[in-house]
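If you are new to this repository, start here. Below is one unmodified record pulled from the training split, so you can see the exact layout before writing a loader.
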Amino acid sequence: MGDFNIDLIKYQQHVYSTEFLDNMLSHFLLPLINRPTRITSHTASLIDNIFTNNTSESHSGILITDISDHLPIYTVVYGQQTSPNNQPTGCTRRNINALTKEHFQNELAKCKWKNVYNATDNPNEAYDNFLSTYTNIFNNSFPYITISRKKANLNNKPWITKGLLKSINT
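And here is the target side for that same chain:
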């Protein structure tokens, strides 16, 4: 949510607007505001917005008022899901880091692939055997872990830099 100063109305004519919106969409973030939020006597621009990956449980809009040269925007989120003890639930992610990648590579290198080579008369069986072996090594090397909702949300936002994290914590 914010005053991005990037006019989404000019999505097809302005390179930075195109890149910004394409980047947001590539991270499954959809704009909730689709009308101008800054209106003057001779221009209208959509530079204030709210992005979300869940549009089904919210209502958004623009407040018409002259308290600023920008119109205030809002969203109301319905039905927040929480765990039984009213704490936000965690998110499940694969544990992928330098150590687990090295483990994965070592396991692939150690694998003999006999079940793949032995299925020379049936390429479908060879493929199934390969996929099964590869998937097992992958799943064992990169297990699922549960991380807090706060950490998961920060991991999904590549624009959150170490400096911004420090400012947020301060």
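Two things worth knowing about this chain: The chain has two domains: 2-80, 97-141. Strands lie at 2-3, 30-31, 38-39, 44-45, 48-49, 51-52, 58-62, 73-77, 91-94, 144-147.
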